[in-house]
Description:
There is one protein chain. The protein has helices spanning 2-11, 56-68, 123-133, and strands at 16-23, 30-35, 43-44, 47-49, 72-84, 87-96, 107-113. It has one domain (14-133): Nucleoside Triphosphate Pyrophosphohydrolase (Alpha-Beta Complex). The chain is built from three helices and seven strands, in the order H-E-E-E-E-H-E-E-E-H. By secondary structure, the chain is of the alpha+beta class. It is 25% helix and 37% strand.
Amino acid sequence: MRLPYLLVSRIQARYSVGVAAVVLDASGRVLLVEHSYHPLFPWGLPGGWVGDDEDPARAIVRELKEELQLEVDVVRIIHSSKTVPNHIDLAFLCRAKSPVGKLNHELLDYAWVDCDELPELKRFHRHSIEAAHG
């Protein structure tokens, strides 16, 4: 059974996977970050890429720790989308267990933003925030 599985797995479609976190504070404000490398939409949800053979929920926990020194509990997946060819994004609702710490080089700033005062965001980010409140 292993050989047929290996053969079939070689011809299956390959996708990269991104993860994003919707973290809400007690007032319902969402955590947004200003990304260093996203000139068109600098503000958005924190997140990153899922590593090789990495569980997506563990990837978002890792990304938040690396970028914001923020520890979170993952609640659940709230949104998913094929955002570009051969790429899938997953958004997780997360609960903060610590305050935001020092930002790494990928981020310029962060802010807790009321949902009626959101800046222009990528569609996936906006839909993820809406899903968290729905």
